[in-house]
Amino acid sequence: MNPSSFLIQIPFFPEQASNFAFEVDLFYLFLTALTGFFTILIGAAGLYFLIKYRRRSKGEVPEQIEGHLQLEIAWTLIPFAISMFIFAWGAKLYYQMYTDPKDALEIFITGKQWMWRAQHSDGQREINELHVPLGRRVKLTMTSEDVIHSYYIPAFRTKTDVVPGRYTTSWFTPTKAGEYHLFCAEYCGTQHSGMIGKVFVMDYPDYQAWLRGVPRDKSPAEAGKQFFTSLACNNCHLDGNTGRGPSLHEIFGKDVKLANGSTVKVDETYLRESILNPGAKIVGGYANDMPTFQGLVTEEQVAMIIQYIKSIGPGQGEAATAPRPAAAAPSTATPASPVAPAAQPAGRPASPKPAAPQGEQPKQN
Ligand code: CUA
């Protein structure tokens, strides 16, 4: 249900321009009203008792009052019920905001001292601006190249930390066309206050026209494929699990058995970790002999490689129904048993420089 028909626009508040804005405001107003109510109630009672039970004569001994069970139960249960209501409402809202929606338009965001880069799924890039279509779900996948930033769009009532070393996501459905503020909401250095931008909500046809008008790089998946080759990933990650590394065909979203017997779901975070710290979670049946690519690829390049891995379809020779060969068979003891994390990669590929293919390096400005 979109409650935008009951929009209440409070003075001094930012516009309500996303699916979350109304309910976040309502919740906030509720908390404010509740706090105000109890502040007045307690203040007034205090004042009243102050006067009513004042000392009337020197040496007056007040009447001793013992407990009052009903009163004590009431002032325990009523605040308990109120706080549980706040918890339930807040949790529900939080759950909605931080559960990734299906079929959302995906945009990749990188924070960096002191700018916001965005890349759309067809390869369009923008800096300190974000163009999104009206009425469509938009999901942001975000990371930072240096310190913690926070992607804050007040008009959407969404704010999500952007953290180096991991991916965070945020989503919204813009409900009102227009131009809105974008802020960094986490102190990140001297130019923090300048790490600002604009969000443009456009009608879908306008958005499409905008996309067409932006000089387009390769899509992230296409660019990722180039990195995949130039970094020689394809030398080991062969189709059909015949190489030194596991096949990457259709692995995204699946569970994979690790050498230590546990299972991990292949998502962005796991893939990123496996690129930058390959020894952390070794797939069962494989040795810990992949070198790290830490420092050789930027966060944006990692994201592109992940987009490529997401896009790889079924391998040849791997019929959809056929059981997965060797690597997926967890029962057998791992062949290379000393998979100690200490086992440093002996044969690093000869300096896998991120040989940026034709201007694919993200603009450094
Ligand atoms: Cu980035 Cu503050």
Structure description:
This protein has 2 domains: 13-49 and 71-217, Cupredoxins -  blue copper proteins (Immunoglobulin-like, Sandwich); 220-320, Cytochrome c-like domain (Cytochrome Bc1 Complex, Chain D, domain 2, Orthogonal Bundle), CATH 1.10.760.10. Helices cover 28% and strands 17% of the residues. The protein has helices at residues 21-52, 69-97, 204-213, 220-230, 268-276, 299-311, and strands spanning 105-112, 115-120, 125-127, 129-133, 138-144, 149-153, 158-162, 168-172, 178-184, 197-202, 255-257, 263-265. Strand 2 (115-120) and strand 3 form a beta hairpin. Helix 1 (21-52) runs antiparallel to helix 2 and helix 4 (220-230) crosses helix 6 (299-311). The protein starts with 20 loop residues before the first helix and ends in a 54-residue tail after the last helix. Residues 111, 114, 149, 184, 186-188, 192, 195 line the site of dinuclear copper ion (CUA).
Indicate the topology.
Elements: H1 21-52, H2 69-97, E1 105-112, E2 115-120, E3 125-127, E4 129-133, E5 138-144, E6 149-153, E7 158-162, E8 168-172, E9 178-184, E10 197-202, H3 204-213, H4 220-230, E11 255-257, E12 263-265, H5 268-276, H6 299-311
Parallel strand pairs: 1-5, 4-10
Antiparallel strand pairs: 1-2, 2-3, 5-8, 6-7, 6-9, 9-10, 11-12
Helix pairs in contact: 1-2, 4-6
The structure holds dinuclear copper ion.
